[in-house]
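[09:14] KT: can someone run the structure on this one? pasting the chain below
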Amino acid sequence: MSRIIAIVGAESTGKTTLAGELAAALRSEGHTVAVVSEYLREFCDTQGRTPQVHEQAHIAGEQTRRIAEASQAHDIVVADTTALMIAVYSDKVFGDLSLYTQAETIQRGYALTLLTALDLPWRADGLQRDGPQVREPVTALVRASLARAAVSYSVIGGSGPARLESALAVVRHSPKSDAGPRWQWACDHCGDVNCERHLLARG
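[09:31] RB: done, structure tokens below
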């Protein structure tokens, strides 16, 4: 069975870069690894706009479908975002809570969840980004959703090679299957974004 590593986090926190670097590092260890990119980006590029509320469920479903498809042919799948992030943005942008239940159920099935920290500078990137002011509230919604779903996760911080090493440390210390407890930060279920910031500052 393929091991799915799900990367979630607010905009401009390095999810795409981390997904590519993590996959390359794991391939160098002899694994067959697929990266599933963010379907929302593809949607925005194709449509020339951000999605409307009634399109969110399709985007979440397509992200999930692509992750499942990749898992059929690879040892490891690194997912650059999941349906949970679509649910969070549906909540934040549209006040729509309807996508959480399914997204949280799906997230529980992934072997490992990595939450990217807010310690990178915000950068503009086309239609998808709303501004640095949304990162803390989005992170709070992500943490709340993961806690509600009882999904263990690890916060990935640091810049440059340190960020990749942080992720690799989690991957290497976690079980090879979904059975048993997962390695995690001591305060994984804290909903205070500022707590995360202080933790990283001490590192």
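[09:33] KT: thanks! The chain is about 45% helix and 10% strand.
[09:34] RB: yep, looked fine to me
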